[in-house]
Every structure is written in structure tokens, then in C-alpha cells.
């Protein structure tokens, strides 16, 4: 476990092997707690793909051929190491060597695919910075230029269980029942870099991003909500994850999320 504390001591973040398991602001918990109904995690990253691959026999097409990937990509199968830590910041890192076969944790209960791989090497950094005002999460992806990738961040936030919260953008208000109707394909909120979670009780959250431009909203329960910044919405109805859904690596790419309680 790792704990970050803001300068004013009013915000505390707890991390477990790189996973954000708690964000306390003025003693109010903002993050979905493991063991509660809903989802077994509190956050994760989706990379180098977002979405399911079973419709295409778990194969993803790249300029270097087709490679096995399971839902949301293989990054989650790798473990973070700690690169640096201070009182209110921490840098985690995952490294992958091209073509390395990785055991798929979904096999055999939830997937027929035992090994997944990707034909590009990459280093993936997760940089956490806690200030008095907000929690900032930056992803830095170092890879071969031209590597295709999708990226999504998948945090889960705590709700009060009464389905009376709203997610708002500059031109939308979306209710929890509406989001639940989206089911496993999630509710798309496209072409925006900022959303807010508005609550009847407790702190509201404003979520600002750089580099993503889209969100997915998902919850299987009324006590939590995943607000997921994504580079592209994958549930387009086609069997293949089309080339248009992928970014192309610049060698080093950065993406930011800032969670601002208010």
C-alpha cells in the first residue's frame, strides 16, 4: 500500500500496486470500494485496445499482423513497478517487450484464449499527483513510432445507491438509469474533454482530460459509476476494431485526467 497526502492534509490517496483504491477529500470517500456490489476493482487501464475482441475470435489487426488480445487489452496483465515517490506524487511503470506471450487471467473461466501478445514494445507510465484541489493522473506511453493503440482509463466512483446522481456535459444531463440501460457496451459521451458528476449529497466531481476527447459511462449497480476517458468508443457494431479507432504512436504520447472535487 502507498499513501499520498496533500499539503493541506485534507486529501488522502491510497494506492495498491498502482491501483487507485481510495481518494478521501475532507474524510469523504470518492472511490468505489472493493468488495462492495458492482465491480471487483476500483480502477484499471485499457491498453492497447478498448472493448471486446471475441466477435473476431480474439484477434486484433495491426500493420505487423493479427495478434491475440482479450477485452480491454493486455496491459492489465502486467504489474506496475515504482519508479519514483514523494509525499504527494508517485510514478508507476509497466514495460512490455514485443511479441512476449502473456498469460490471460480470464482463461479458462471467462475466455478460451490462454496467451495474449502484441507486436510492439512499449513502456507505460502512470503518474499520480495529489494537490489540495485535485487528483491528477498522467499516462505517458513510450513506444515505436506508428504503433497503433487505443487508451482508456477506467476509474469507479462511489454513489449513494439512490440513482439520483447526474453526469453532465456542456449540453447533456445523463441519469444513472439511462447509463444502466447501456449495459455492457457502456453509455458513450463523445467529443468532449470534460464531464461532471453531480450528487444530491456529498462532493460533486469535475473530470477534465487532455488527449482523450471521449468518455464511456458504465455501472452494473446503483452504488458506483465508472466514468471512463477513452481515445475512441469501440462499440460501433462492426466485428473488427477498425483502423479509424486507433491512435498512432508519436514515440512519446501523454494523456491527462484531473479529478476535481467541489
Overview of the molecule:
The structure is a single chain. This protein has one helix and 24 strands. A hairpin with a 3-residue loop joins strand 8 and strand 9. The chain is globular and about 50 Å long. It has one helix spanning 176-181, and strands at residues 2-5, 11-16, 19-25, 28-29, 43-46, 59-62, 65-68, 81-85, 89-96, 102-103, 115-116, 122-130, 135-143, 148-149, 152-158, 166-168, 173-175, 187-190, 194-198, 205-210, 214-218, 224-230, 247-248, 252-261. The protein has a single domain (2-261), classed as Beta-galactosidase, Chain A, domain 5, CATH 2.70.98. By secondary structure, the chain is mostly beta strands. Helix content is 2%, strand content 46%. It has a nine-stranded antiparallel β-sheet. Strands 5-15-22-21-18 form a five-stranded antiparallel β-sheet. It has a four-stranded antiparallel β-sheet with strand order 1-2-3-4, with no helix packed on it.
Instruction: Please mark out the parts with pLDDT under 50 across 5 or more consecutive residues, or reply none.
Output: none
Structural class: mainly beta
Written as H for each helix and E for each strand, in order along the chain, the element string is EEEEEEEEEEEEEEEEEHEEEEEEE
The largest β sheet comes out as: 9 strands, antiparallel
Overall domain count: 1
Shape: globular
CATH architecture: Distorted Sandwich
User: How many E-type strands?
Assistant: 24
Mean pLDDT: 96
Helix content: under 10%
Main sheet: strand order:
8-9-12-13-24-20-19-16-17
- Beta strand %: over 45%
Q: Kindly report the CATH topology.
A: Beta-galactosidase, Chain A, domain 5
CATH level 1 class label: Mainly Beta
Ends: how far apart?
27 Å
Amino acid at each position: 500500500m502507498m499513501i499520498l497526502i496533500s499539503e493541506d492534509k485534507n486529501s488522502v490517496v491510497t494506492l495498491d500496486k498502482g491501483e487507485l483504491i481510495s481518494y478521501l477529500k475532507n474524510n469523504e470517500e470518492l472511490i468505489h470500494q472493493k468488495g462492495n456490489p458492482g465491480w471487483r476493482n476500483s480502477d484499471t487501464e485499457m491498453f492497447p485496445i478498448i472493448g471486446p475482441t471475441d466477435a473476431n475470435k480474439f484477434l486484433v489487426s495491426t500493420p505487423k499482423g493479427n495478434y491475440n488480445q482479450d477485452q480491454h487489452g493486455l496491459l492489465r496483465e502486467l504489474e506496475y513497478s515504482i519508479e519514483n515517490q514523494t509525499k504527494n506524487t508517485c510514478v508507476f511503470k509497466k514495460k512490455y517487450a514485443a511479441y512476449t506471450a502473456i498469460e490471460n487471467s480470464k482463461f479458462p473461466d471467462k475466455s478460451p484464449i490462454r496467451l495474449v501478445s502484441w507486436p510492439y514494445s512499449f513502456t507505460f507510465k502512470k503518474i499520480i499527483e495529489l494537490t489540495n484541489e485535485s487528483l491528477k493522473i498522467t499516462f505517458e506511453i513510450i513506444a515505436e513510432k506508428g504503433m497503433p493503440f487505443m487508451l482508456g482509463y477506467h476509474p469507479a466512483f462511489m454513489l449513494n445507491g439512490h440513482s439520483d446522481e447526474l453526469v453532465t456535459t456542456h449540453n447533456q444531463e445523463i441519469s444513472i438509469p439511462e447509463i444502466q440501460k447501456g449495459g455492457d457496451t457502456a453509455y458513450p459521451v463523445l467529443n468532449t474533454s470534460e464531464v461532471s458528476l453531480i450528487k444530491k449529497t456529498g462532493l460533486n466531481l469535475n473530470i477534465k482530460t487532455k488527449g482523450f476527447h471521449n468518455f464511456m459511462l458504465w455501472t452494473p449497480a446503483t452504488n458506483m459509476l465508472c466514468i471512463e476517458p477513452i481515445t475512441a468508443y469501440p462499440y460501433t457494431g462492426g466485428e473488427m476494431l477498425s483502423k479509424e479507432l486507433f491512435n498512432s504512436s508519436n514515440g512519446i504520447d501523454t494523456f491527462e485526467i484531473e479529478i476535481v472535487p467541489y
